[in-house]
Automatic annotation (TrEMBL):
Residues 15-258 form the NADP-dependent oxidoreductase domain. The lineage of its organism: Bacteria, Bacillati, Actinomycetota, Actinomycetes, Pseudonocardiales. It comes from Lentzea cavernae. It comes from the Bacteria. Keywords: NADP, Oxidoreductase. This is Oxidoreductase.
């Protein structure tokens, strides 16, 4: 498994398994299947309502705790210093873990204007050794700049919507300049039109790989961390089977021309 090194030296797998929209009871078999297929990073969130099911799968898997990188996220209603501490405790308890690998602020919710206080609690949780790395999700450069200016601590990761149809060059550049790893959510464009795009299809045919595998390979080669989601065992397997081929530069560039600049998800400046 390819890995990336975060800004505090913690090592994170470059490909993981996302569980958004997977009900709690279904998260256990899905995460079990992913661990069996070789995934060693799981991305959940308090808002997904499946931290318990995810934690159960990890506990029952027989895989050593230190070999699985677990990410969860603080939900919007829990912003603020004290609320963050409480939300973190609740997430850890549901996951059944003593220490979390990565804690992310799910959305900046700028109208609430308290993500800096939230971040101060994150910094403290990390100092206390309760979480190995701290980061954010859906942060725009202006939000990141504020965090860094007001606390002096840059996030290790910024998890953002990112796929060939929505590439966020500006956010990726800001992340790179500040040593923040870019993690792509909805890396497959939620399995929509992207996977039938003629450019993607042509490259897939040339490699004898699927469209999803080609898109994941594009992410890996441009340095993104990816967390594709599926509950179908054959697709769970397919989405990790991306380390036996390489796209030549011309194909990476061809995929990079597909940007349409339009989001699937909400605009982080507007979501509260
Ligand atoms: P995704 O791009 O991973 O697409 C998943 C969908 O694509 C599946 O439901 C399925 O319909 C299809 N699919 C999966 N594998 C396939 C394959 N091999 N062939 C064909 N179709 C396939 O979308 P996602 O679930 O939105 O994003 C992945 C993860 O990112 C989530 O599970 C979650 O962990 C995270 N996420 C985070 C945020 C955030 O705000 N931080 C938002 C959305 C998602």
């Amino acid at each position: 498994m390819n890995t990336v090194k975060l800004n505090n030296g913690v090592v994170m797998p470059q490909l993981g398994f996302g569980v958004w929209q997977v009900p709690d009871a279904e998260a256990t078999p899905a995460v079990a299947e992913a661990l069996k297929a070789g995934y060693r990073s799981i991305d959940t969130a308090a808002a997904y309502g499946n931290e318990a099911g995810t934690g159960a799968a990890i506990a029952q898997s027989g895989v050593d705790r230190d070999e699985v990188f677990v990410t969860t996220k603080l939900w919007n209603d829990d912003h603020g210093f004290d609320a963050t501490k409480r939300a973190f405790d609740a997430s850890l308890q549901k996951l059944g873990l003593d220490v979390l690998d990565l804690y992310l602020i799910h959305w900046p919710t700028p109208a609430r204007d308290n993500f800096v206080d939230t971040w101060k609690a994150f910094v403290e949780l990390q100092k206390e050794g309760r979480v190995r790395a701290i980061g954010v999700s859906n942060f725009q450069p202006a939000h990141l700049k504020r965090l860094i200016d007001e606390t002096g601590v840059a996030p290790a990761v910024n998890q953002i919507e990112l796929h060939p149809y929505f590439q966020q060059a500006d956010v990726r550049a800001f992340n790179a300049e500040h040593g923040i790893v870019t993690e792509a959510w909805s890396p497959l464009g939620q399995g929509g039109e992207l996977l039938t795009d003629p450019v993607v299809q042509k490259i897939a045919l040339a490699h004898g790989k699927s469209a999803a595998q080609v898109v994941l390979r594009w992410h890996l080669q441009i340095g993104n961390v990816v967390i594709p989601k599926s509950v179908t065992p054959s697709r769970i397997q397919e989405n990790i089977d991306v380390f036996d081929f390489e796209l030549p530069d011309a194909e990476v560039e061809a995929l990079s021309t597909l940007d349409r600049g339009g989001r699937i998800g909400p605009n982080p400046d507007e979501l509260n």
